[in-house]
Amino acid sequence: MKFRFQWNAPIRISPHNPDIVYVTSQVVHRSMDRGRTWDVISPDLSRERPAVPEGVGDFRTPALTDMPRRGVICAVGPSPLDVNVIWAGTDDGLIHVTRDGGRNWQDVTPPDLPQTAYIGCIEADRHDPGRTVRCFFEYEALTPGYGWCVHPYAGAGDPLPPFPGAPYALPLQEAGAGLLQTLWERLNGENRIALALKLIAPQSGTAELHLINQYRRA
Questions:
Q1: Most Cβ neighbours (<10 Å): which of 29, 65, 178, 218?
Q2: 136-150 pLDDT tens trace
Q3: Does one domain contain both 126 and 151?
Q4: How crowded is residue 20: how many other Cβ atoms within 10 Å of its Cβ?
Q5: Global pTM value
Q6: 37 and 133 together in one domain
Q7: Closest of 64, 78, 113, 72 to residue 91, by C-alpha
């Protein structure tokens, strides 16, 4: 099996045993020995026929519409009440849960959840193993000169709290360094540690990387 990992794939340590670690691609991976060895404990939990968001506009192509399964699990939430209960959310609007440690998975996606919803975080309820708290957003239509931005941190804390809600529109008329500075200033002051911005020209495919941290920028 070829695994599809996103660049910020979630890593979760079991609240029951620090030796147990979960990482996700399109499947849930589990280590029982702090990452030395791994087992796959789920099937592919992404959507078999993923939808294409209407917001892609001119970027919609037959190749994109007919693209095979491409989703990933972008959130995993082991229950603090039952070691066998694990929740998983994908970037194409699906939520699954196992109640037997990964042997069987049930699709519990709410019927009103959009197919293009990105399940950015999922947390098992601390009082009821049958409930979960999820955070998701759905991209709207794109406006020329703007892009959608998700602020990853709502403020300070340990652990850092997740983003507070839906993405917001960010003007892209600025040059690379200017856009980087705008993003930097949007960060909570206590979270201004480091930031990387990669700009890719859709026509040529060329890319430029801008970096900034609390000491210097490039």
A1: 29
A2: 555 555 566 666 666
A3: no
A4: 17
A5: 0.61
A6: yes
A7: 72
